[in-house]
Every structure is written in C-alpha cells, then in structure tokens.
Design a protein that fits this description.
Layout (H helix, E strand, L loop, with lengths): L9 H9 L7 H11 L4 E4 L6 H12 L10 E4 L3 H14 L9 E4 L6 H6 L5 E4 L1 H9 L10 E5 L1 H6 L3 H8 L7 E6 L4 H10 L4 E4 L10 E7 L2 H14 L5 E4 L3 H13 L4 E4 L5 H12 L5 E4 L14 E4 L6 H8 L9 E7 L4 H10 L6 E3 L9
Parallel strand pairs: 1-6, 1-7, 2-4, 2-5, 3-4, 5-6, 8-13, 8-14, 9-11, 9-12, 10-11, 12-13
Length: 377
C-alpha cells in the first residue's frame, strides 16, 4: 500500500517520498482515510509508530488558509517538547502545499509577547493548554473557527492534571468539529474522555505484533546504589557508547549524574523542567547533532520526542510506572534500527523492577555486576 492509495494528493505523496517515507505504517494506513472522510478517530499505537504523521498528512490535505485570521486546526499536547516536535512535522510538509499556511507552537516557559504577536496569523496551532488559555484571556486568539481538534498523548494529558484546562478550552470551541485523539495506551481515563469528546468515532488500535518490529535489546544489572555511578561510566567508556540517553527520577539527580560524568571526562548535559525552554531546546538539538555524548533527563523526554537512530537508553533510576518504562526504552530501537536499553537496579528497586516486568508480560534476568572492576570509573 502506498500513501497515494490512502487518498492523499500528489503534492503530499511526493513530499513523503522525498522524506524517505516509502510506505505508510499501520497506524497511518488506518487513520489517514478516516480523517479524510471527516470521521472522529481514536488512534492507539505504541511510541515510534508514526502517529504524528497519521494526522498531520490528512489535516494538511483538508485545511484551507484561514483568511479570517483564526486557526482552523488546534492540536493540544502535554509538553513543550512535544509541541515543538509536532510543529516541526507540520512544517516539514507545509512547503509542499499549493497555498501558504502557517503553523505555530505555543507553550509556557518562554516570553508570551512574541506568541501574542504571531498567534493571530496561524492557521494551525499546536499548544499546551495553559499557555493557550493565557493567549485567549489576552484576546490574542479566538477558537471559534476551529474545524479539527487533535489531542495528542491524550492519556498523559489527563494524568498530568490538564482536565480542567482542557474542559475550559472545549467550551471555547465550535460544537461541530472533527475530533482526533491519540495515545500509546488505552487507559480508563482515556475511555472516559473519548466518550465525551468523540462522536461515533472510528477506533484504530495497532497491536504490537501488527506494528513495525522494534529491535530493543534489554539488559538489567543488579548493582548497589553506591556503585551505580561508576557502573554507568564503565558502560559508557568500556562499550564506547557514542550517544546515550540516561533517565533519572528527578532534576536534582540528573544534575548530580552530569556533574560526575563531566568530572570523569564524559561530555554530558542534563535536561529537565527546571530549565528554561530555550536552554532545553538548545541542549536537545546539540544532543541530536552529536555534540553532546550523554544526555541525562527526567521523564520529560520519555514521551513524544523522536531522536533518530538513538543507539542506547539507560535507566539510572527506574520510573514509577510500567508505562513510563515502556516509553523510556521506546526512545531507542526505532524505524527498524536496533538499540540497547539498560537498567541499573539496586536492591531496593528489585521488587519494583519485577512489577514492571510482570506488567510487560516478560521476565528479564538481572545480570550481577559485583565482580566488575569499577576502580577508576
């Protein structure tokens, strides 16, 4: 099946080919025709499955320039990073369109004035709920012309407590509109909101065995807390890891790990919510470009951020939920390329690690690290 078979115009199919998209992924093959047909859609597929393009492409097929200077498309996302990433996907394809359209990402953590000046020109807005409400309250934008609403990572938005803000935005939108909800998992909270938001929706759920194979080699080391830092540095140096994403449970721990890595001659940086959006964007771009060898992050980067060909993810500390574990390791082993996911598990974390493994339907053995000589690391 090709993108042309799904009903996309030649200018978009030529653009997908130019960007190396040879054929649609399962979620794209299921979603694109339904969106083009004007139906409400609930799309469930794992991270890295191509969910963003599954709604970006048909939306661009349908959208027209908003001459009335009001946005026609609204995409709500839970994080600044995801907002910026979704904007990039839209802008990747905008030059291929026969008419000029504008896509703008709006989110907190940066000055609001530039966004106030630009938001009135946008045909497509990608936003975090809080900042969008701020812009509405300042009369910088109205939402009465929105024809298509997208909730991306809808389950995460509900878990992060956005419901009150999302409800306030719903009240500002036209009743007659197309609604598209996307998530990696179908949770009870998501089921609840889709019953309120979606009208006779088409549900497209891609099981893991239907989706593109993910080649993730998982390894878990049993290690005492005091030896975690030396073991991390040992693995990076001994295995000659060139690009590593390390996850910690807090911003304080992320900064502490970076401090130790730097003192041991390993080029590294941290990224977390206590940093400004400008700094976070710069750090992430430098990591993607290979200028930073090790990026130490909180779960801020566990969802919705694509890093091409990332070879290794390390859980320095385990996440609280199995879902977050899945999203963390899902940063590697994408698009048919293999990757390593390493977890460092201290004795206090072993029970929680078993719970995560049970929820995932697997049992990964712990590799003992006591005999490894970590002197000098």
């Amino acid at each position: 099946m090709s993108f042309a078979d799904l009903g996309l115009s030649s200018y978009l199919t030529e653009a997908t080919a130019a960007f190396g998209f040879s054929e649609p992924t399962p979620i794209q093959a299921g979603v694109i025709p339904e969106v083009l047909a004007g139906k409400d859609v609930l799309g469930i597929a794992k991270t890295g499955s191509g969910k963003t393009a599954s709604y970006v492409l048909p939306i661009l097929e349908k959208v027209t320039s908003a001459k009335h200077r009001e946005p026609e498309v609204l995409v709500l996302v839970p994080t600044r990073e995801l907002a910026d990433q979704v904007r990039q996907v839209f802008e990747q394809f905008l030059p291929a369109l026969p008419e000029r359209l504008c896509c703008l990402a709006v989110f907190g953590g940066v000055a609001i004035n530039p966004q106030m000046q630009e938001v009135g020109k946008a045909d497509i807005i990608v936003a975090t709920p809080g900042r969008l409400l701020d812009l509405v309250s300042k009369n910088a934008v109205t939402l009465s012309a929105v024809k298509t609403l997208v909730l991306d990572e809808a389950d995460k938005m509900l878990n992060l407590g956005f419901k009150k803000e999302v409800d306030a935005l719903f009240a500002l939108l036209p009743v007659r509109r197309q609604n598209l909800l996307f998530s990696a998992t179908l949770s009870p909270a998501l089921t609840s909101i889709q019953q309120v938001v979606l009208h006779e929706p088409t549900m497209i759920e891609i099981d893991s065995d239907e989706a593109e194979e993910v080649l993730i080699n998982e390894v878990a080391y049993a290690v005492t807390e005091v030896r975690k830092g030396p073991l991390l540095r040992y693995l990076i140096k001994k295995e000659e890891l060139k690009q590593v994403l390390v996850f910690t449970s807090s911003a304080v721990k992320a900064d502490a790990v970076v401090n130790k890595l730097t003192k041991n001659g390993i080029n590294s940086a941290s990224i977390h919510s206590k940093m400004s959006q400008t700094v976070r964007r710069e750090v992430l771009e430098e990591f993607k470009e290979g200028k930073i060898r090790v990026l130490v992050a909180t779960d801020l980067l566990a969802r919705g951020v694509d890093i091409d060909s990332l070879p290794c993810v390390i859980n320095y500390e385990l996440p609280r939920s199995p879902k977050d574990y899945v999203h963390r390791i899902g940063r590697t082993g994408r698009a048919g390329e293999s990757g390593d996911a390493i977890s460092l598990v201290n004795p206090d974390e072993e029970h929680h690690f078993r719970v995560i493994q049970k929820k995932m339907g697997q049992r990964l053995p712990l590799t003992e690290s006591a005999d490894l000589n970590l002197h000098g690391y």
